[in-house]
Amino acid sequence: MLRKLLSYLFPINIETVDSAFSGKIELNLHRGKLVLDTAHTNYSYGSLQRILLRGLQQIGTDRVRMMDNILVLGLAGGSVVRSLTEEIRCRGKITGVDIDPEMILLSKRVFHLDEIENLQIICADAYRFAKEDKSRYELIIVDVFQDDKIPPFVLRRSFSNILLQRLTRKGCILFNTICISQEDRLRNEKFIEQSRLLCHVKTMDDVNGTNQLIFLYK
């Protein structure tokens, strides 16, 4: 109880796990809640959950609730899955993909994602999975990071082309990006400009003061 009270003053580390993909994964108690962090950013159940929930609300909670097949690339601790199943009450199939086996183990052991009946968890590289998978999705959430960095492939036109092929008619891809520096802004502007040649694009800027959400609509 004391640790929980103190966590409203400052985050309290509960456990740290070394990962070949994510560096040090920290399980912290923050404002009375368990969150997953890496060295420089929140990975699950903190600001990230609020950011992606705003993205889902922008798409439309009623629309998302009725979706039959959703793909999450970059599952981490699975806070977006909790938003989908508990807040939006989505009962369709959700496939969560993460390259980091340590992250997946934590998501099951601490956050009990394996108890969510409509969730399938796959340990795989996001690019390779998307390229080899033949399923069709109404929504693809791309939340792929290495600590606070976006791997270069994520915002390349070749990856967007693959994901657009995986969408159903009128489907949507939601990209979560950190956009703080001038370099980040130029990177996103280039991606948005290229994407407009392929599909309809919308953005939500300055989400939580740090992130830009990019929506691609087929």
TrEMBL record:
InterPro entries (UniProt xref): SAM-dependent_MTases_sf
Protein name per its UniProtKB record: Spermidine synthase
